Amino acid sequence: MIMTKEEKNLYIRLFKLLKPYFKKISIIFVCIIVSAGINMLIPLLSKQIMDNGLLVKNFNLVVKYSVFTFLIVMIEQAIGLIETRYYSYVNSVFKYTLTKMAFKHLQKLKLQYFNNTNFSEIMSNIGMDVGNISMICDRGTFIILSQILRIVGGLIGLLVIEVKLTLIVLLVVPIRYFTVKMMAKKRKAMFSEYLEYNRDYAMWYGDVISGIKEIKLLGIERIKIGEFIRKQRNIVKINIKMAFLDKFNEYSETIVYQGINCLMYILGAYIVFYNGLTIGGLFAFITYSTYVIGPISAILNLGYNFSNIIPSAKRFFEFLDMETEVDLNKKNTLRLDNIDVHGNINFENVSFSYDNGEKILNNINFNISSGEKVAIIGANGSGKSTLINLILRFYKPQEGKITIEGIDINDVNLRDYRKLISVVSQDPYLFNTTVEENISAGSGRDVSIINEAAVKSGAYEFIDDLPLKFKSEVGRNGSKLSGGQRQKVAMARAFARNSKILILDEATANYDMESEAYVNQLLTTDFKDTTVIVISHKPDILKKVNKILVLKEGSVREYRSINEIEDDLLKEEKAE
After folding, report:
1. 3-state secondary structure string, 54-87?
2. Average pLDDT in the chain
3. Helix pair angle (483-497, 447-457), 10° resolution
C-alpha cells in the first residue's frame, strides 16, 4: 500500500513509541517464525502418511509419522505459550503507556483547552484513539508481519510439487492488491468521518450531563432526546457503512480464495489423472497454497485493517503536540520556595485579550506589597477573574510582565510558583474522597495542620458532627455537603498550604454571616505576613483591606478605602 508523507511520519512516531519493547517484540517474532517453520513440516508428513502409509497399507510408517506429527505439534504449542506471554505484556503495557502519556499531557495543558473541551469529549477521544493505536501491536499484526518466511517456505513447497499450479496461486496477489487498496481508502475516509461525529456527540453528551439540573428545571428533556436521536443517527449510519464495507472486503477475499481453490482442484485433478501427481502430493500442494494465499491476503489486508490507526494516530499526536503551560524550551527556570518569597507582586504595563480580540486589561500597572490585604472589585466582565488567572499563570499577558519579588513570574519553575499561592473560589471543587484528604491535598497529612486549618476556616464544627469525622466521604464535588460546608473545606485546604499569597475569589459567598465575620477578622489577625487578594463587594471585608483596586474598562484605579471610592463616584456624577 502506498503511504503519504504524513502517514509515514505518523508510523515513524508510532514505531518510536514501540522502541522500549523491541527486545520482547523480537522474541515474539522468533517464536512466530519458528512456529511457522515447524508448521511447514506438517503437510510433508501428511503426504508421507497418505502416499507411503495409508495407500500402501504400511502401518508402521503411519504410526511413526503420526507420533512425529504429534511431537511437532506439542513443540509448536509450547512455543505458542512463550509467544503469548510476551505478546500479552507488550499489548497491555503499550496501551497503558499511551494512556499514561495522554493523562500526563492533560495535566500540563493550558486552561483554555479545558474551557473549550468537556470531560466526556476528552474521555471519548483518548479512549478511542488509544484503542485504535494499540492495534499496531495486536497479536494479529505480529503474526501477519512474520508471515513473509511462511510465504517463502510455502512457495518453495509449491514449486517443488507443481510449477503450473503455483502460477494460479500467485494470481491472488494483483487481484487482492487492487481491491484492498480501493476499500482501504474508502474505509479511512469513513473512519475520519466517524471520529468527527463521535467527537461532536461526546462534546454534546458532556454538556447535557453537566447541565442536567437546568434541563430538568426548564423541562426540555424531549428536546434533548431529539438532539440525541439526530446525533446518534449519523454515528449509526456511518457504522452500518463501515460494517458493510468490512463484510464486502471479507466477501471479496473469500470469493478470490475459493476461486483459486476451485481452479487448483480442477487442474490438480487433471494433473493427478494424466501426469502422475500423487493424491498426497495434491493435498500437500493445497495445504501449502493456504500457507501462501492466507498470509498474502492478510498482509494486503493490513492496510485495510489499519485504516482506523492513521486517523486516530493523527488526532492523538496533535493532542500530544498541543502547547502546554510549561515552556519546555526553558531548561533553567528559577527555583523558589516560601523562604525566598515575601509576597510582593507587581504588574508592569500588562495588557491581555482573549484570542486577539478586544483588550480585557489595557496597560495595567499596580503593586501589592508583602503582607498587604488588597480587594479587587469591578462590574461583571471587567477582568477580575482574568487578572487572577494571570497571577496564577493560567494565562500569559500579551504585553508587559508580572513580577514576584522583582522576578518575572514566567521565569520561575511553575510547580514552585503555584506552591506560593493558595486559592479559594466561589465555586470550589472537592475531590470524591474524605474530608481529610481534601484538606491535606497539596500540603501533606500532618494531623495538627489539618485540624488547625479546619478550625480557622470554620469547618471544624460541622466536621466534628459527621459520622466518621475527618474520614467522612464528601461525594463527587462535595455532593454530600452543603454549599457553605464545601466552601469551608476549600478554605481549610487553602489555609493548610500556608502559602505566602492567599487569593479569595468570593470565597465566603456561601458562609453564614457569623462565620464570614470570623474569617474576615482572621485575615487581619492570623495572616499578618501573608499577602491576601480578595475579590468581593461586601463592605465588611472592604473595610478591613489596605487598599482597593477598581477595574473598569480595562484599567485599574487604586483606592485606600471605600470612602475614597464613594467620593470619586460623587465627583463623576457631578461632572456629568
Report:
1. HCCCCHHHHHHHHHHHHHHHHHHHHHHHHHHHHH
2. 79
3. 130
What are the residues whose beta carbons fall under 8 Å from the beta carbon of 195, sequence distance 6 or more?
Answer: 128, 311, 312, 315
**Mean pLDDT along residues 355-382:** 83
Q: Beta-carbon neighbour count of residue 54 at 10 Å?
A: 15
Written as one string, the DSSP assignment of 254-269 is: HHHHHHHHHHHHHHHH
- List the one residue out of 527, 472, 480, 538 whose CA is nearest residue 505: 538
pTM listed for this prediction: 0.71
- In the chain, what is the greatest distance between 2 CA atoms, to the nearest angstrom? 123
Q: In whole angstroms, give the CA distance from residue 250 to residue 180.
A: 10
First-residue to last-residue Cα distance in the chain: 76
C-alpha to C-alpha distance for 417 and 396, rounded to whole angstroms: 14
The 3-state secondary structure of 3-57 reads CCHHHHHHHHHHHHHHHHHHHHHHHHHHHHHHHHHHHHHHHHHHHHHHHHHHCCC
**Structure confidence at residue 157 (pLDDT):** 60
**Residue 316, SS3 per DSSP:** helix
The CA distance from 181 to 304, in Å, is: 7
Which amino acid, one-letter code, is at 119? F
Instruction: For the chain, state the CA radius of gyration.
Output: 35
Q: Tell me the C-alpha distance between 558 and 547, whole Å.
A: 7
Average pLDDT over residues 250-266: 74
**Is the predicted pLDDT of residue 567 greater than 60, yes or no?**
yes
Residues 6+ apart with CB under 8 A from 263: 168
Rounded Cα distance, 307 and 180, in Å: 11
DSSP state of 323: P
pLDDT in tens, 474-486: 888 888 888 888 8
Strand ranges across the sheet with 555-559: 421-424, 501-505, 531-535, 373-378, 547-552, 555-559
Whole-number Å distance between alpha carbons of 188 and 480: 47
Phi, psi (rounded to 5 degrees) for 252: -65, -35
**pLDDT value at 251 more than 70:** yes
**In the structure, what pLDDT confidence band is assigned to residue 330 with cuts at 50, 70 and 90?**
low
The torsion defined by the Cα of 518, 523, 525 and 531, in degrees rounded to 10, comes to 180
| pLDDT at 414 (0 to 100) | 83
HEC string of 89-133 equals HHHHHHHHHHHHHHHHHHHHECHHHHHHCCHHHHHHHHHHHHHHH
Grid cell for residue 296: 498474502
Cell 472486503 appears where?
249
Q: Which residue type, as a one-letter code, is found at position 120? A: S
